[in-house]
Amino acid sequence: MRLGFIAAGLLTTVFASPVSADWFNKADSLTFAHQKMLQGDTAGGFTAMVEAWQQNLNKEERDNLIDLLGLSLDEDCGRSLSQQPLPAWLNELSLRRERVQLASRGEYRFYIRGMANDPIKELIFTRWPGETVVNLSLSGRAGPFEMQLEDLNAPVAEGLYKLEVSSSNGETWNSWILLQPPKPHQRLSWVDASTWRVAKPTQLNNVCQKPFQTVGIFPMPKEEKAPVWSDERATNLPVSLPQLDVTPGQYWLDVAFIEQRWQGMILIENVQRLGRAVTLPDINYMDIAAPK
């Protein structure tokens, strides 16, 4: 594992269990979460879900909470889940889980990104009840920041997490984070060295931004260089490169399929990514083509 830092109608699905009817006779957080959601109190339901995750749950109850979290996104893609604002010194915050398929191997990655008015001193990300995912002391400048976990053997799992962010001025902000299970289906896969396959989602949340694909060509070695060519779109997704006017040589081809939701003001992304070295312009170019 590598860790780095860079500074600068559906309710029947949830209630289908034969024991679920008994839950409404209980005075526990799981029941309260359902009741709040039925009453249209999304933020109250989220608070109850956080409390429920801290109980001793069986698999059926955990699955129920995961389903309930998914249904809660139908209102406004999760923006109403939390009413907690970001502090004045933290302008943007996002979490990203990535599933990456390279030419010869696969890996998982996790990122915490943001934009801060004050330098970020420390990032702590913990899975309930006490599993530390990230505990990183930083020395950077105000502006954009990024924490990277790479070469992971497994994705950051579903469940309840706590994120703590501390600034150099001594202030600390924290928030509970609820993550859904990683996407089980492979949306992107290689066809050959220069083309790929896109499996579009069969179920889309109409209140969330439509999933989109990015394609980039980077100079080698890639490092943190800007792309020499890039493309981003949510429809008519290409499955090969167009003919490019670039200096002959070896480049890094990066293709990503990105799905986004929110938890209040925190952006949460799930990404599937392909990457490999390609030689340009020696490959057999095709015009941009969308899968049939």
How would you characterize the overall build of this protein?
This protein is of the alpha+beta class and 292 residues long. The protein contains 5 helices and 14 strands. It folds into 3 domains: 2-8 and 90-179, Immunoglobulin-like (Sandwich), CATH 2.60.40; 11-72, no CATH class; 188-280. It has an 8-stranded mixed β-sheet, with no helix packed on it. The protein is globular, with a radius of gyration of 21 Å. Mean pLDDT is 86; it is low at 6-21 and 283-290.
The CATH class of the largest domain is Mainly Beta
- The tally of beta strands, per DSSP, is 14
Largest sheet: 8 strands, mixed
CATH architecture term of the largest domain: Sandwich
Shape: globular
Task: Could you tell me the CATH topology label of the largest domain.
Answer: Immunoglobulin-like
State the strand order across the main sheet. 1-6-3-2-14-13-11-12
* Mean of residue pLDDT values: 86
Cα-atom radius of gyration: 21 Å
How many domains is the backbone divided into? 3
By CATH, the superfamily of the largest domain comes out as Outer membrane usher protein
Q: Which blocks of ≥5 consecutive residues have pLDDT under 50? A: 6-21, 283-290
Q: Estimate percent helicity.
A: 10-25%
Task: Report the end-to-end length measured between terminal Cα atoms.
Answer: 38 Å
Question: What structural category arises from helix and sheet content?
Answer: alpha+beta
**Number of continuous helical runs:** 5
Percentage beta strand: 35-45%
Secondary-structure element series: EHHHHHEEEEEEEEEEEEE
